[in-house]
Amino acid sequence: MKSSIRRHHYRRLQNKRKNYWLSVTGEKLSAKVLGMVVSTPHPCSCRGCGNPRKHENEKTMQERRNLIEET
Q1: Same domain, yes or no, for 53 and 24?
Q2: Is 50 in contact with 44 (CB distance < 8 Å)?
Q3: Are residues 35 and 55 located together in one domain of the fold?
Q4: Widest CA span in the chain
Q5: Do 5 and 36 belong together in one domain?
Q6: Number of domains in the chain
Q7: CA 16 – CA 23 distance, rounded (Å)
Q8: Are 28 and 2 in the same domain?
Q9: So what's the pLDDT on residue 67?
Q10: Are residue 36 and residue 64 in the same domain, yes or no?
Q11: Which end of the chain is more exposed for a tag (fewer CB within 10 A), N or C?
Q12: Cα three-residue angle 56-60-64, rounded to 5 degrees
């Protein structure tokens, strides 16, 4: 991808995500934090944001079929 298109999409995402991680006081994000939001919109990997297999020990369909076949 050309650098001009990459810069365009970076600025587009900055504009779109400038209100993602608002602080409790409602302050605007600093340039450093806004750059983090553009590259990683999810602030954490907690139970609500993260992979459900990690937190709830869910199995994939393939793993469930394998368990059925073994028994």
Answers
A1: no
A2: yes
A3: no
A4: 57
A5: yes
A6: 2
A7: 17
A8: yes
A9: 87
A10: no
A11: C
A12: 105
Write down the H helix ranges in the chain.
3-16, 31-39, 52-56, 61-70
Distance CA 28, CA 3 (A): 27
- Both 32 and 50 in one domain: the answer is no
Given a cut of 70, the residues of the chain with pLDDT beneath it are: 22-25, 49-50, 55
50: Cβ contacts below 8 Å, ≥ 6 apart: 42, 44
* pLDDT at res. 11: 93
**Domain that residue 1 falls in:** 1-40
Question: Measured between alpha carbons, how far is 49 from 30 in angstroms, rounded to an integer?
Answer: 23
For residue 41, what are the contacts with CB-CB under 8 A and spacing of at least 6? 17, 20
Same-domain status, 34 and 48: no
pLDDT at 25: 64
pLDDT computed for residue 23 by the predictor: 56
Q: What tokens were used for 31?
A: 């340039």
What pTM does this model have?
Answer: 0.54
